[in-house]
Amino acid sequence: MEQFSNEDIIGGILNNNSKVLRYIYAENFPKVRQHICINGGSEDEAADVFQEAILIIFEKARKEQLVLTVKFSTYLYAVAKVVWKSYLRENRKEEDMFQLNETEWDFEIGEVDDYIIDNERFKLVWRYFDNISKDCQTIIRLFLEGKSISEVTQEMNYSSEQHTKNRRLRCKESLIKKIMADPKYKELCREIKIDKINRW
Which of 3, 60, 78, 169 could bridge 105 with an S-S bond, Cβ 3.0-4.6 Å? Predict the structure, then answer.
């Protein structure tokens, strides 16, 4: 099988190069699958973890935040282990089944773990965003797009800017209340960026 450098692989991921993606799968998935199956997971879970690890690497590369100091296969395997650890924690499985050897990967994994935590925050926020009223969703989206009070008032056809401010406040309070009532919030409460919502 043709070999690819780290640069070739990252470029292939960013460009959705099917040849490179097949190479990544063939060279790396069996090891990830073996690790997860040995540690209490299924083959389907291994496939999900592998895909999530690739997406994390894609996002880091897309944002130009990925600088590899080891072989890509070593990095991908380490990321997959962190993703699986997150899955175990979220699903309350016995974590003593999963032994991390910290000396195997002391390269940016802290950042990957942070990325996963950020992703969990993101999913928690948007899970409840989808459950607030359509009116509130629209208001929040407009403010996230950088619209001013005046512009939102006009677009929503409200009677006054004060009414818009009141609606925005009620919408934020509704969303935050739903998020904080979720048991998952307690796990993320030290990290979750409620202050970001407050700036909407």
Answer: 78
Please write the tens of the pLDDT for every residue from 127-142: 788 888 999 989 988 8
* DSSP track, 140-152: HHHHHTT--HHHH
d(CA 93, CA 91): 6
Angstrom distance (rounded) from CA 108 to CA 134 = 40
Among the listed residues 123, 128, 119, the one whose alpha carbon sits nearest the alpha carbon of residue 175: 128
Per-residue pLDDT of 52-73, as tens digits, reads: 999 989 988 888 878 777 889 9
Q: What percent of the chain has pLDDT over 90?
A: 31
Separation between Cα atoms, residue 33 and residue 28, nearest integer Å = 9
Distance CA 77, CA 90 (A): 20
Closest CA to 28 of 46, 45, 11, 8: 46
- Residues contacting residue 25 through CB under 8 Å, at least 6 positions apart: 50
Q: Enumerate long-range contacts of 62-66, CB under 8 Å, 24 or more apart.
A: 62/14, 65/111, 66/10
146-157 mean pLDDT: 91
Mean pLDDT of the chain: 78
CATH numbers and ranges of domains, the chain: 6-103 (1.10.1740), 119-198 (no CATH)
Specify whether the CB–CB gap between 68 and 89 falls below 8 A. no
pTM of the predicted protein model: 0.52
Q: Alpha-carbon distance 170 to 159, whole Å?
A: 17
